[in-house]
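FORM 12-B: Structure-to-Sequence Request
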């Protein structure tokens, strides 16, 4: 009799990209329906078979499931919820011998990240805004800059090494000692930001994001001036990371 050894929750939706107030509640609901409730529905459907085999549940989320980034509201909310669900599932299914693993990819060069797809996501929400709201962000000139720089970040900065994702799937399914989390892609290093205080983390994330999008100009100027003039802040952040490394507190737990 054949048994189900592993369930892989792979389907996902990344349909829009833009600020929270550009997005509707329906768009939040759509992302949650696919990225979170879809995982729950499929897992519930196959749970009896997984219990019979003491099998595995492998779910792909994102680094956005642990680190919130501007412009990714509906997607990030759904991925945070999915991570929470799998964390609960891992604890509840442990007595049944079922292992739950999460794959957290960063940016990879797939159709999800190509320039046409990113431009369509931005245009979809931007074109619904009234003129007053568009003017708050800088009008069409800002939108064009936002599209260009976002496309460069997501597509040109994405990793072409898709084999690492496939290898992680294979390891999670077949290994005698599978991990609980697989962090994939060079930009998974962003997760180190979770180790620093929120005020510093937001400062770094927002400065990085605004340098990409070109908005708001005043904040970019003031932030760059602060960084250039405040060497003490730089040294403080660097010293903090060095101390963490020496204490081995930045070691990724892949047990």
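FORM 12-B RESPONSE
SEQUENCE OUT:
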């Amino acid at each position: 009799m054949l048994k189900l050894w592993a369930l892989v929750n792979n389907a996902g939706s990344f349909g829009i990209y833009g600020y929270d107030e550009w997005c509707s509640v329906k768009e939040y609901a759509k992302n949650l329906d696919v990225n979170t409730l879809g995982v729950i529905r499929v897992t519930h459907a196959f749970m009896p078979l997984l219990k019979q085999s003491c099998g595995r549940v492998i779910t792909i989320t994102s680094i956005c499931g642990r680190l919130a980034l501007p412009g990714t509201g509906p997607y990030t909310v759904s991925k945070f919820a999915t991570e929470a669900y799998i964390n609960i599932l891992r604890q509840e299914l442990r007595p049944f011998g079922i292992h739950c693993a999460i794959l957290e990819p960063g940016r990879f060069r797939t159709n999800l990240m190509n320039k046409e797809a990113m431009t369509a996501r931005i245009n979809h929400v931007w074109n619904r805004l009234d003129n007053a709201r568009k003017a708050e962000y800088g009008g069409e000139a800002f939108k064009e800059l936002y599209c260009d720089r976002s496309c460069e970040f997501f597509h040109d900065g994405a990793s072409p090494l898709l084999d690492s994702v496939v290898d992680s799937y294979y390891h999670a399914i077949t290994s005698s000692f599978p991990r609980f989390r697989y962090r994939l892609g060079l930009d998974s290093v962003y997760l180190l930001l979770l180790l620093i205080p929120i005020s510093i983390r937001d400062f770094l994330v927002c400065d990085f994001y605004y340098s990409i999008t070109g908005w708001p100009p005043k904040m970019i100027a003031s932030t760059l001036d602060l960084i250039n003039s405040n060497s003490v802040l730089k040294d403080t952040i660097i010293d903090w990371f060095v101390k963490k490394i020496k204490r081995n507190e930045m070691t990724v737990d892949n047990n």
